[in-house]
Amino acid sequence: MDSVDDDARLRRFRLRRREPAQSAVAFLERMQSALVEGPPSGPPRLTANDIRRAHPSATDAEVAALLAHQAGPDSSIRPPTRYEELGVHKSVQLVASRIDEAVVRAGRGRGSDPPLVGLLDVGHLNARTMRMPGDDGHLVLVDRELLQFLFLFGKAVALAVPSGPTAPAGMLGFATKRADVRAHLRQDDEAVRRFLDAVFSYVTTGRASAAEPYRVAPGAQRFSSIVVQAAHTFLLAHEYAHVLEDHVGDGEQSPRWSMNLEGVADTVGLQLTIDVMQRTGHDLYFTYWGAELVLFATETALKAISLLRSGNDVRGMRDDELHQHAAFEARRTMLEFLVRGEMERATGDKDSFERQWQEISEGLHVMRDIVAELWHETEPLLRLAHDQGARPAAVWES
Ligand SMILES: [Zn+2]
């Protein structure tokens, strides 16, 4: 993280005001106390040392200002409840604050407060939006293990990309042709090992954080951090879209589910994500890869659950999982149409866009191709684990 970004982060955390109503926090805390495993970690506090470690360029005055801000009633640094960890809360707030800004830029910030984002532990392959009782606005619930799974999934994908000699626009000089990826995976098994560890840990324990932590080379690190940023943004922006589009009707707790509403949420969510990513200097490819990462990671988890349950990656799915799987697939198809439309509009010249589409489409499908290669290598190993008695965690069976 360079110092310009660092300053921007500091400012954002200091300036941002996201203080929900007491009753909303109490509602979130009641939910978390029922759903979060284990005792609360206690009121988390950022120390001066934490700030200096995270923001080496911060001056003493800035550190003092942050500490004072943290203690204030309108702090966005302090997690809203004692069931949330400081580190995860902070990174989710950064994503949320960027989306808030994109909502305002899109002229849609009037009328409603931004939703309160609450973190839960385990067991859902999706974020959810609900309306809080009374007039307290909306609550977006995200599982921190899902965020961690997306993070590790993005990292393994980045490891699967060999660094290439050429640098086509927006591609950071990575060789992203499928044949190159395949050759790279044969040469170096780290991507497959890490991918397997992330998927296996998540599916057998419910916790992606049970996977072994590791560092990657700077190139892969940069690729994964951008794609994961896009993935986390898209995951939340989709939920924001349900709020903005008023999908949770009066007297209802959560949106009525329909593919139609999902399509609207993806359209609006994608627009917001494109805006956020452009502001941080990244093109449409990254936005697309990030959105696909969300959909592929969850599909992969469903397939792995099915495989460990039954020995087959589709036939072991329950009805609700089959339904979820089909929805993710449909959303991916739709996403391509949406991005194609965006790109065509940006090009302005329909004919020349048509001519370039083949090449663009290949670039867009990097994520799909990498995940297909990684799954191809991982599936036999999961099958072996199933034969030896490995099964999905209880959290996936309830
Ligand atoms: Zn949705």
Can you characterise this structure?
This protein has 398 residues and is mainly α. It has 2 domains: 1-84, no CATH class; 145-396, no CATH class. The chain contains 14 helices and 3 strands. A 3-stranded mixed sheet has the order 1-3-2, sandwiched between helices. Helix 5 crosses helix 9 (218-244) and helix 10 crosses helix 12. The longest helix has 29 residues, at 319-347. It is globular. Zinc ion is lined by residues 238, 242, 262, 265.
Order of helices and strands: HHHHHEEEHHHHHHHHH
Strand content: under 5%
How many individual β-strands?
3
Number of helices: 14
Strand order of the largest sheet: 1-3-2
The radius of gyration is 21 Å
**Residues in helices, as a percent range:** 55-70%
Shape: globular
Major sheet details = 3 strands, mixed
Distance N to C terminus: 41 Å
Extract low-pLDDT stretches: 12-17, 166-172
Number of domains: 2
Mean pLDDT across every amino acid position: 84
What small ligands are held by the chains?
zinc ion
Helix and strand content put the structural class at: mainly alpha
